[in-house]
Structures are given as structure tokens and as C-alpha cells.
Amino acid sequence: MARPRKEGLDYFPHSCISDQRIDLVRVQFGLKGYAVIYRLYEKIYLEKGYFCEWTDDIALMFAHDNGMNVNVVSDIVNAGIKRGIFDRDLFEKYQILTSKDIQET
């Protein structure tokens, strides 16, 4: 019997070396900014392994599941796009969150 094909990853590396892009989101939003970025990384790596869909409905569920206001989450995601944590072109074209760094990881 064949093993079912697995999507996503069980873990991803978390560097101890500071990333200025994430630091700027943290400075702008406090620890909520940092937490949202890393919760999004978890979502990305768990679901598909290198991207996740990001629509208004998904943002609403993500905010609810993490006990946050959807507007704050959207602001943090937009800051992540602005800072290059997530790729703007792929977000605008496909409504996904990903980046070259995420895909290489």
C-alpha cells in the first residue's frame, strides 16, 4: 500500500540572526507584528510548504484563530509586503503569500 503524499512541512528553520525586515515590522507593530509574521510562516510551511493563499476570508479566519483584529493582521501583512518579507507581485497576481527566501527554505 502506497504512503499518502504529504503536503507541507513538519518544521522550518528559525534563524537567531536578526532580519532587519522583520525587525522593522516588530518596531512598527510591537510583538504582534513579529508574532503574525511567524504565525504566517507556520501557515505557509505547514499547508503547501512554500506559499499560502491570502484572501479576505482567510485573513478573517487567521485573525480570529489568533485572537486578533483582522485590520491589524491586514496592516501587518501589508507591512510585510512593503518590506519584502512577502513578494508583492505574486500577492497581487495570485493572492498568495510567499517569497524567494520562503521558497528556498
Structural write-up:
There is one protein chain. With 105 residues, this protein is mostly helical. The protein has one domain (20-104). Helices cover 59% and strands 4% of the residues. The protein is built from 6 helices and 2 strands, in the order ααβαααβα. A two-stranded antiparallel ribbon has the order 1-2. Helix 3 (56-65) packs across helix 4 (70-82).
Secondary-structure topology with pairs:
Elements (H helix, E strand, L loop, with lengths): L19 H10 L1 H17 L4 E2 L2 H10 L4 H13 L5 H7 L1 E2 L2 H5 L1
Antiparallel strand pairs: 1-2
Helix pairs in contact: 1-2, 3-4
Task: Pick out the low-confidence regions.
Answer: none
Q: Nearest-angstrom radius of gyration?
A: 14 Å
**Separation of the first and last Cα atoms:** 31 Å
Please tell me the total number of domains.
1
Number of DSSP E strands = 2
Task: Trace the largest sheet across and list its strands.
Answer: 1-2
Q: How many helices does DSSP assign?
A: 6
Main sheet? 2 strands, antiparallel
Helix content range of the residues, please? 55-70%
**Could you give the order of the helices and strands?**
HHEHHHEH
Shape: globular
On the 0 to 100 scale, the average pLDDT is 92
User: Which structural class do the helices and strands define?
Assistant: mainly alpha
In terms of DSSP E residues, the strand content is under 5%
